[in-house]
Structures are given as C-alpha cells and as structure tokens.
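Q: Hi! First time asking for a complex rather than a single chain. Here are the components, and I think there are two in total. Is that enough to go on?
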Amino acid sequence: MMFFENVVLALNSLKSNKMRALLTMLGIIIGIGSVIAIFTVGNSVTLSVSTNLQDVGANDVFVSVVERKDDEADPNAAMDGLKFGSQDKREEMDDDDYMTVDMVKDLCSQYEDEIHAVSLSQNLDTVDVAYQGEESSVTIIGANVGYFIPNSIEMTSGTMFSASDFSEGRMVCLVEESTVDDLFDGDYEGCIGKELEMLVEDQTVRFTIAGVYHTESQYAMMFSFGRSSSLYIPINAAARVKRSPLSFSTIEVVSAVGVDPGDLSKKITRFFDRYYASNNDFEISAYTFTSLVNMLDSILNTVTSAISLIAAIALVVGGIGVMNIMLVSVTERTREIGTRKALGAKNSSIRAQFLVEAIIICLIGGFIGLVLGVVGGMALTNYMGYPAAPSLGGIMISIGFSVSIGLIFGYFPANKAAKMNPIDALRYE
Amino acid sequence: MADIIRLENIVKKFYIGKPNELEILHGISLCVTEGEFVSIVGPSGSGKSTLMNLIGALDRPTSGTYYLDGIDVEKAPENQLSEIRNTKIGFVFQTYNLIPKTNAIKNVELPMLYAGASRAYRRQRAQELMELVEMADRQKHLPEELSGGQKQRVAIARAMANDPAIILADEPTGALDTKTGRLVMDLFHKLNRENHKTIVLITHSPELASETDRTIHIRDGRIVEEGGAI
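A: Yes, that's all I need. Here is the structure of the assembled complex.
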C-alpha cells in the first residue's frame, strides 16, 4: 500500500541530492556495467565460435596419431628395466607409427553402419607448376572420395573426379581459381583438359586438369595459413607418385546420420588401441568438435568467472558506498524520522522507506550500468569481429544483483532509522 | 463529559537501575475532559516536556496508568503506540517539523497515508483542512517557501488529519512573532470552539495559558496548582 509512495519519496530524495546520488551510484554502475560487458563479450564469442565449429563438422571425428602420454602413474612401469631403458621417447614418427590403409579399411568394415565416410588425404610437396612459361605455387593433396564430404568444394568449371579416377588413381587434378588466374589468365573453361607439369619427389609428373574449384568454406578460411592454393589429385595417384604405401597421421571420420560422434570417437580409439598396444611412443587420439567446443566453453567460462569475481568485488564496494550514503541520509533526516514517527509511522514503514530508497539507488545505477555494459560489450565484440549477442542471463543476474545489493546494504541504515527513539529523533539538531 | 485523558499517579524515571537514576515525574494525576482547552505551564526542567511525551504516547511511564480515549496507553506495544499517535493525537511542534522537500498538502496527507487511507480520500480531506486553516492557496508550496506562521498553520492542518481525540501543541507560538502567534492561537480557539477539539497546550507563557479553559502548573515534576481561566 505504501510502496508507490515510498518510491515517489525515494525519487524526490534522490532528485534533491542529484550529485550525491550519482556518485553513490557510480560504484554500482561500474560493477554492473563490467559484469554485463563481460557477459556480453563472453556470450558472443562462445556463440559465434561454437556455431563456426558446428558448421565445419559437428558430425566429424578427428583421429590422429599422438605421442603416448607418460604412464608414470603406473608404479610397475618405472621398475620395468626395459621401459627404463626406453625412457627417452621418440618424437619423430617412423613409417610404422602411421595409420595404414588396411587399418582404415578394417575400421570401415567394423563400424559400417556408423561411419558415413572417412576422409583421407596425403599432402605431397608444395611445388611450382608450370604451363607454357607461367608458374604458380600449389600444395599437392592426394584425397579420397570421402575427403570431399567434410571439405566441400564448389566446382567453377569442369567436373569432380569420377569414381574410376579415384579407384584407378588417374593422373587428373582439381585446381583452385587462383591457380588458373596465374596460369591461364583466369580462363576457367579453357583450362579444362590442359596438362600441368610439376616436379614432385624428384620426378616430373603431368596432371590433366579435370575441374576448377572455388574455395570459400569456413574451414579453408580458418586453417589456410600461407596463401598457397591446393591442387587435389586422387589419393591413389598420390601413392603412385610417392612410390610408397599410403600412411596417415590424421584421418577424419564422418559419422552416419543419427550416430553420436562422441560415442563413435570412443569406439574408434578402442579400435586403434589394438594396433597401437605394442607401440610405446605413439597412440591414437580421437576427438570431435563437440569436445572441442566444450573445451572452449569451459575455458571461456573460467575466464568469465574470474573477471566476474573482480566485477563482484566492484559491486560490493559499490554496495558499501550505498550503505555509507544511506547512513548519512538517515542521520541528516533524524528529525524527519522523529516527525514521521510522531505522526504515526510504524517502524516497518520507516524501514521500508529507506530500504526502497537504497534499492532505487541501486536499480537506477544498475540500469545505467546495464545500458553502458551492453553498449560497451557490443562495441567490444564488434571490434573483436564477432557478432554481438547480449546475454539475457547476465542482464537478469545484474538486475537481481542490484536489488540484492540495495536490500543487503540498505538494511542496516534502514533498520537504524526504524529503531530510532522518536523523542531523541525529534530533539535532534 | 467523559475524560479523554486520564493520568493516574504517573511516575517517570530515567537511567533506571543505574547510579544516576533520575525521577522526573513524581506521581502526576490529571484529567482532561472532552472538548476542553487545557494549558500546561512550567519552567524549563519542570518535567513538562516529559509529561508531554507521555501524553503524546511517544514514551511510556515507569509506573502509573494512562488512559487516552479509553485506551490503556502504558500497556500498549510499540506498534499500537504508533497507531495511537496516528489516530488519537495531533502533534503541533514549536519548530513546525514539516517534512522538507514535500509540499504543504502532502505534509497534511502524511498521517492519513500512515493510517492507510485511499489517495482520493487523502487528497480531499487535506484540501478541506487547508481551507480550514486558510492555506488553500498554498497547497503546492514547499515548506521552505512558507513563512513561520504559514508553516505552523499547515502543521495544525496536518495535526487534524485523522480527526484525533486531542491536539497536543508544544510551544506552538514559541518561534513566532506576537502577531502571527496571535493568529495561530486564534486558530486553536476556533478548532476548540467550532470543531470541538480537545487541545492540550504546553507553554511557558502565562499570558497564553490564561486564554485557556484551565491551566495546570508543573514544578519539579509535580502539579503545583490547577485553576480555570481568570
């Protein structure tokens, strides 16, 4: 019943002390503002990074050969003379350490229903290709048919390799637009069927251009370091050029529809354990983008909480400022409090009046902080190059926080006012 | 007519149980009947402020009984004391004690606000009271924009807000010059005569006291003489 009147009273009281009110709010403004800004930045970055990663390959499992983790937790390992002797682990991978085509084939047949495709690629050298005196630098990548599922390419002209191109390892290639720009002056149609000559593994090889592709996948943008364009050849052709059996340090498995990539990654790790059980130096690690996203999330959350803690300290300092100014206000208005009591105000009415005033200070401060925080956070995320996404949760939390600070730090002064003896209060000069 | 105030053997001590225990009122008994205009006179230190605080339900006696309009005040808990002050007593202070930065009519509305009256009723009643004290044209003025006499008239209107059983005026003309003090006294007489308000006036001025129906003299915490108007 008195609530509205208390709000009006509080606003009047703040209006008559604008400067003081503003200075008091400053702590709250800074506190809330920084919390909101941090949440906005954190939220925007997490959201955009995880959607980017999802786009790239939410269903993909990345399988790589990694150095075996130390088993020093196992006390027997240290006692084992053999292991002791081989304490210095090899860091360079030998031919035996790579995954082989047979392993991949076994994997595919064992989990036939769960694997949609396996992407295999073999990077050969980065070389200069020549055509009638023009030269361009390319990285030769031998790729299987599965490679083009997670790494989709858009054909500008010509055609993708045919099934027999893949199976027979024909000497054909797909080139990027930029290569055609260099060699054929951008004649995307005219270059089809032309032969490119290059020196790979100390031999001159010729590849016929089957098609020209346009790259704009996120993946390529994120992971293309130098601007050497890729020239794709069938993986069997790469094997022939290399004159050695194919081996892989990394493969990418695309899970079938409805299969949880996380589960599949565990199965794949177990599958490869058989092959690597006797390998002291290397093992297989399979991870998914989901696990990568989760990892990223947890890192961002840790950073966010750490900064939020600092912001929370700012809020507490702000709250103490509110308490201080409320105590001053209560003392200044002692006579008014006495008068109100003489006119019949109950202790609870006085307490409510000052509590509402403290809450209003914090709410107004919180709102200003909110606006500044959202604006600042969005400016910062835009500056960092991410689309801004203000965190609704952060906004709710900060409003809740403002009210709580008002309540917690306003209670003591309000209670002091409520408990005043009316006679002393009326006599106060 | 019925007694609206009945004090029986009121004793008030301070610092009870401490070495500096002090007895201010030594057993005061007095009655005020409805519609009476009574003055309480005494020099400073006589205990008249203490007596006023007790009558105004701002404090409880150490012993003795106090009935105000039939309510046993000294037994009332804190919240009921607030209610008694709110509905039974209209305070008029020497220093007016208007709430600063709050306009005249809002000041008059305040006791009704604490009584839980509706906004429309408050506004209407406050306007009537402002007319009664001839301040209708100053409703929106802030206290700091009013003269002393005007402030005191607003304060009297505020004291009348909940139609209290008594008006308790503590040196209401003490801070005013003779002429405006006269106007304020006339207003009290009018409220007593036309609105039949019981008024208790605390003063140290024998002239003002002589205007009232009855004067109660206090000295050293005792009633020394009681008498009607001369």
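A: The interface with chain A takes residues 53, 56, 58-59, 78-79, 82-83, 85-87, 91, 93, 97-102, 110-111, 113-116, 158, 162 of chain B (CB under 8 Å). Let me know if you'd like any chain examined more closely.
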